[in-house]
Please model this.
Amino acid sequence: MRTQYKSRVWARIGLTVPVLGLLIGCDVFATRDPEPPQAGVGTWLQPDTPDRVVDNLQTAVAEMNSGNYLRSLDADFAFEPSQAARAREAALWQGWGRADEETYFSRLVASSGFSSGHDLQLLDQTENVISDEKYVFDANYILTVRHSRTTEDIPTEFQGRLIWEIERSEEGLWYLHRWVDVDSESQTVASWSELKASFVK
Model:
């Protein structure tokens, strides 16, 4: 009986040792570098009303979440920069669409994603229901982004006024279709357009 018991114990040890060897060889227990923020996770509300598009964009900025930011944009998204930004680089803004917005925001996330304190304040809000398919949101904004490119004289705070035209798609969900940026009355504060221009290059 003791011989059979010893045989079973050695058989189990014989199976356990190679398995442990494989695990150690595959670096299962090794420390891994932290992964960058995941696109598409985070706080998200189904955009079945236009105000949820506004909420999702505010949250995407606060969380520096490129996936949720882009999910809020219409396929035919268009952006009109502030007058000051257009006067500086007129060619940059010609045909600015969803692809340009993706490039700018993805680069901003890469520069800001591991820091905190990002914030989009929307003040003096005005909401206009144009039709069952179109809604216009107008507000003054104060945007704070803690990016790492401060040595390039890119500020971390931006102010101005935004006009968001939000439209309903055929499936009944709402998306940001057109965005107009307006310079702040204070000429000393950069607009959101200038942030986009800095990070799209």
